[in-house]
Design goal:
This protein is an alpha/beta fold. The protein is built from 24 helices and 17 strands. Bound molecules: 2'-deoxyguanosine-5'-triphosphate and calcium ion (CA) (2 copies).
Length: 582
């Protein structure tokens, strides 16, 4: 079988296709049709269930939707040579800073090209300077206002901290741990993710891995040689730090099995939790470190091989990592009132999902089967309504047609039901994208704000509350509209919105897309305090997205949510009665 010169990952090839799409667009080398083809190919490659290398080896590249002859040839060149001349030529022509401008909210390829070609601007900083000097307003199609918006966009971009979304970092960490275990099955006694990634924080600064073994060096060697590693920053007996291709730093620590419990506890953090726990330990006459618990009077050392032992010696039940943020978890543990946190296995259904009736990538039937095969009892199809500026949004007529299909599919199963719904657009004035009569026909209505997120606080808050007050609306989806690493959410008054939801008995969503996680952990906690029910849903646009649910469940757990507070843990009948009663 033919071997590639480099074992490209699906994500790497997808990134290259997106990059080509941006480059040909900015350079106007190819037309909008081809530009879309690159991005579509990228999207499908990124979500491919098998290795792109295998697909290439079997000569099946063109079976991937969006991959035609021209794109297949490019992937073939990458596999055979490790390079792509077409890309290199484009990169020579378009300075890399021009593409950086595309990440500024409000700057697309047309504007980036305009700034580059007419003013010779080749980077975000240069663009900022030009805007401050008032040079942009004179360009065709620009004015004082749009110049101001560019400055705001740059400020928004630069206020995003340099942390990586958990949805990217966590799979990388788990992949590295798997690779280590596979390479050294007899040497590795235990291995685990620690740090913020184990606590499921929404973004991570760096990754922390722990391995228990008697002989560390073979592990450090294998780790340094993993294909994800770009650069070894530090290599020692107890700790090795590397930087990955995407810039993320990973620290690996190897330690003896006898000290596993204290080390895992220490390196899981958070720092604030550890400080509080050490304080409690001292009060009880122990000094707690990553190595051991030590009596402060006699110096006697107690080694802990499990975390449970550490907490037990301090008179506490084990505290789930998601709670270890020093937000009252230690006191709750002392008083034996830690929450029984919701788990993935508690969920009976999902209440937000798409199909190719709007912007989903699978048929309604495929989505339903995917949900059913994952053990769910119900699944809400909530495609987008008209009014989002999306070509494919559903109007009342298509919604009725879709309902017929849902009813006929539902005759198939006795253990599963597709719920008929909509993700209805909340328009700029707070009215909805579909008439009440159409909404009243549905099992569950999800409302969402997608546009105008830069409106002022009062207007935005009014929109969300107006949507909640519509008697047909059941769930408010991704309430702040943020996209991690891309844009902050709208300036909503979440306290007012949650209070209104509590008052009306409406459901607020925890969207599990790793770039959303919205509500976030802090907002979930507030929702729990005031009695708001939440739904945890993947907002799936393809079957594999259903598995993103783990991120939403983790976010809910970080907000102390118990199964009872999560409506999609309920049996369907109870859920529908709750929804009807209002
Ligand atoms: P990150 O990387 O910013 O997402 O957050 P963490 O929590 O992973 O922090 P990191 O990587 O600096 O350290 C990993 C864990 O190690 C941290 O959660 C707690 C522990 N740790 C590290 N340095 C200290 C320290 O100076 N004091 C205490 N108490 N714990 C520390
Ligand atoms: Ca970390
Ligand atoms: Ca670290």
């Amino acid at each position: 079988m033919i071997e590639p010169v480099r074992w490209w990952s699906n994500a790497e090839i997808a990134d290259i296709m997106d990059r080509i799409g941006d480059l040909v667009e900015v350079s106007e080398k190819e037309g909008p049709f081809q530009v879309r083809a690159y991005h579509r190919a990228a999207d499908n490659i990124r979500h491919l269930e098998e290795d792109i290398v295998r697909v290439w080896q079997d000569d099946r590249l063109e079976n991937i939707p969006g991959v035609g002859k021209a794109i297949a040839k490019k992937i073939d060149e990458l596999m055979r040579t490790g390079h792509l001349r077409f890309l290199e030529n484009l990169e020579q022509e378009v300075p890399s800073g021009v593409l950086d401008m595309l990440s500024i909210p409000g700057v697309g390829s047309k504007k980036a090209r305009l700034f580059w070609q007419s003013l010779g601007i080749t980077g975000v900083e240069e663009l900022k300077k030009a805007a401050e000097e008032g040079k942009l307003r004179t360009l065709p199609g620009m004015g004082k206002k749009s110049e101001q918006r560019i400055l705001e966009g740059i400020a928004a971009l630069q206020s995003i901290p340099d942390r990586i979304p958990l949805g990217i970092a966590r799979p990388l960490a788990l992949g590295m741990l798997d690779a280590l275990r596979e390479a050294l099955p007899d040497v590795i006694l235990k291995s685990e993710l620690a740090g913020s990634a184990r606590r499921w924080r929404e973004t991570v600064g760096d990754l922390d891995l722990l391995v228990a073994a008697t002989d560390p060096m073979p592990i450090m060697d294998a780790f340094s040689n993993l294909h994800q590693v770009k650069e070894v920053l530090l290599k020692g007996e107890t700790k090795t730090s590397v930087r990955l291709q995407n810039g993320l730093q990973v620290d690996l620590r190897v330690l003896p099995l006898e000290r596993w419990g204290t080390a895992l506890q220490y390196f899981t953090g958070s720092k604030a939790h550890n400080v509080a726990l050490r304080g409690l330990a001292l009060d009880m006459g122990w000094s707690l470190s990553e190595y051991a618990l030590k009596r402060t009077d006699t110096g006697e050392e107690r080694l802990c091989t499990t975390e449970e032992e550490v907490y037990e010696l301090l008179g506490l039940p084990w505290i789930p990592p998601e709670l270890r943020e020093d937000r009252g978890e230690i006191q709750a543990a002392q008083e034996k009132r830690l929450p029984r946190l919701v788990e993935v296995s508690d969920l009976r259904g999902q209440l937000h999902g798409h199909s190719d009736w709007s912007d989903g990538r699978a048929t309604l039937e495929e989505m339903a089967e995917a949900a059913r095969s994952r053990g769910y009892e119900y699944f809400l199809i909530s495609d987008h309504s008209v009014g989002l500026g999306m070509t494919n949004g559903l109007d009342a007529g298509r919604l009725r047609e879709q309902r017929k299909l849902i009813d006929s599919l539902n005759r198939r199963w006795s253990d599963f039901r597709i719920l008929a719904g909509i993700e209805v657009e909340v328009k700029a004035d707070g009215s909805l994208g579909l008439p009440d009569e159409a909404l009243a026909e549905l099992d569950v209505v999800v409302a969402a704000v997608h546009t105008g997120l830069n409106q002022d606080r009062k207007t935005l808050t009014h929109r969300a509350i107006a949507a909640l007050r519509n008697p047909n609306v059941d769930i408010l989806a991704h309430p702040t509209g943020r996209l991690l690493g891309k844009r902050k959410g709208g300036d909503f008054d979440m306290e007012a919105i949650l209070q209104e939801a509590a008052h009306l008995g409406k459901i607020v969503e925890v969207n599990s897309q790793p770039s959303r996680l919205d509500l976030n952990d802090v907002n979930v906690r507030r929702a729990m305090e005031i009695g708001v029910r939440i739904s945890i849903s993947s907002d799936a646009h393809r079957p594999s997205d259903l598995d993103n649910i783990v991120y939403g469940v983790a976010t809910a757990r970080r907000g102390w949510a118990e199964p009872e507070n999560v409506v999609n843990t309920w049996p369907l009948r109870r859920l529908l009665e709750w929804i009807k009663r209002k």
